[in-house]
């Protein structure tokens, strides 16, 4: 690959004693890793069940390197949402952000959802996760990944942060800003970013990053934490952005990040961390942790249930979830506590999609299936991992199974839900969402 000369000069200045090793590392293969979905399975149990050889990622408790030839995206456990495929260094920012049960958490630039899914795991089904991305089209993959993880207490939105801060001044306990950047740290893995860098380098992104971080700081409540991260090396996109926000928001302070082997401190900013691909098994990254001084306040908002379609109501009696259903048009949602008012901003999904009404016909949602445990639905079939019916179901085919009654049935692999089917005389008519069917 032909690298931009300005970038080469920059890296020679940043790494005067290591640039040969750094540039040599760009010829090495990149790494494949997965992060366990602890909302559905413990790390220990996943390690016992894992179909792949696993090697821990040092800077996170739930991440593991896997052989790319193992094709982790083509395993039934992936379809069941037991793990997320993620670049190893990209696991760091969400790991650094302190999140406790009941917190209100914002992911400002969330698509495609790798970091949001980790934040959802930290919340453990409590509080609120606001996952935002300014690109509505990219929000579709964000929504799909959060649904795969069985996330219930989330609101997926598509707004500019300058608009979000008007709605949520000093509202969030924890905020992640994984900012858009020039992508220097990903050149080895994604070669197309080199051409993008030639068109839009650090000078283009730095003002955007400062604006997003300023907006995020305005939404951070007293006592709250904020992580800023990029996958680039340019100081003007990293340390200079942090210095800017510390100057414009004197209530913020920079916290030290514990150093793992291979990490280095920021440029004249030892509290921050830089990850270089010649020092670690991963791509390039930068991260800094900030905190707003002061005492946090409590959150009060709640959402009550409302009237829903009769057919949906009959089906949902079979689901062991608290009665917090609300109908919006043709969609029936399970609404978590503390979801904010939705009028006046672009919300793609609020809470858990439980079902839809199509042409007067009721259909339970794929998102609901993936959010349930088998014991939370009154008719379930579970196939072993080596049962050929698993692959047939994932391809959208009808399969045979013994069921106690006709009607809606939750289909599982090893007791992990995959989706719904409709049982009729021992036949399971496939209702797996078409976008999730294997080709």
From TrEMBL:
Residues binding S-adenosyl-L-methionine: 109-115, 133, 160, 178
Active site (catalytic residues): 231
Keywords in alphabetical order: Cytoplasm, Methyltransferase, RNA-binding, S-adenosyl-L-methionine, Transferase
Gene Ontology biological process: RNA methylation; RNA processing
Alphabetical list of SUPFAM superfamilies matching this protein: S-adenosyl-L-methionine-dependent methyltransferases
Record GO terms (molecular function): RNA binding; RNA methyltransferase activity; S-adenosylmethionine-dependent methyltransferase activity
All residue ranges annotated as the SAM-dependent MTase RsmB/NOP-type domain in the record: 22-293
Family: Belongs to the class I-like SAM-binding methyltransferase superfamily. RsmB/NOP family.
NCBIfam families (UniProt xref): nop2p
Protein name: NOL1/NOP2/sun family putative RNA methylase
Lineage of origin: Bacteria, Bacillati, Bacillota, Erysipelotrichia, Erysipelotrichales
């Amino acid at each position: 690959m032909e690298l931009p000369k300005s970038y080469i000069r920059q890296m020679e200045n940043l790494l005067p004693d290591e640039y040969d090793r750094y540039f040599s590392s760009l010829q090495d293969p990149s790494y494949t890793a997965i992060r366990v979905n602890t909302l559905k399975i413990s790390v220990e149990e996943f390690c016992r069940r894992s179909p792949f050889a696993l090697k821990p990622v040092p800077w996170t408790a739930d991440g593991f390197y896997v052989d790319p030839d193992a094709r982790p995206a083509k395993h039934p456990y992936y379809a069941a949402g037991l793990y997320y495929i993620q670049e190893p260094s990209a696991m760091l920012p969400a790991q650094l952000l302190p999140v406790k049960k009941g917190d209100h958490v914002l992911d400002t630039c969330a698509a495609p959802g790798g970091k949001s899914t980790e934040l959802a795991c930290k919340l453990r089904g409590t509080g609120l996760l606001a996952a935002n991305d300014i690109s509505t089209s990219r929000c579709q993959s964000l929504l799909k990944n959060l649904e795969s993880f069985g996330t219930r207490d989330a609101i997926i939105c598509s707004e500019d942060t300058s608009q979000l801060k008007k709605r949520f001044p000093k509202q969030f306990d924890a905020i992640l800003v994984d900012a858009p950047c020039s992508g220097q740290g990903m050149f080895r893995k994604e070669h197309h970013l080199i051409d993008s860098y030639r068109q839009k380098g650090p000078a283009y992104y730095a003002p955007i990053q400062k604006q997003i971080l300023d907006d995020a700081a305005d939404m951070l409540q007293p006592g709250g934490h904020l992580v800023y991260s990029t996958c680039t090396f340019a100081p003007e996109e990293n340390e200079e952005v942090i210095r800017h926000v510390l100057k414009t928001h004197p209530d913020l302070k920079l916290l030290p990040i514990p150093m793992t082997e291979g990490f280095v401190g920021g440029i004249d900013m030892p509290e921050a961390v830089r990850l270089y691909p010649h020092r670690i098994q991963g791509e390039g990254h930068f991260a800094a942790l900030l905190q707003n001084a002061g005492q946090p306040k409590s959150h009060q908002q709640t959402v009550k249930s409302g009237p829903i379609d009769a057919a949906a109501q009959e089906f949902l009696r079979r689901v062991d979830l608290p009665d917090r259903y609300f109908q919006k048009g043709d969609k029936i949602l399970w609404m978590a506590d503390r979801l904010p008012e939705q009028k006046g901003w672009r919300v793609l999904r609020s809470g858990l999609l439980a079902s839809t009404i199509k042409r007067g016909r009721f259909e339970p949602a794929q998102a609901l299936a993936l959010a349930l445990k088998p014991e939370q639905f009154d008719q379930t079939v579970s196939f072993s991992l080596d049962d050929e019916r698993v692959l047939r179901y994932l391809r959208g085919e009808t399969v045979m199974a013994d069921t106690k009654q006709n009607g809606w049935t939750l289909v599982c692999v090893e007791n992990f839900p995959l989706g719904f089917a409709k049982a009729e005389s021992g036949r399971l008519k496939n209702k797996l969402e078409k976008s999730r069917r294997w080709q």
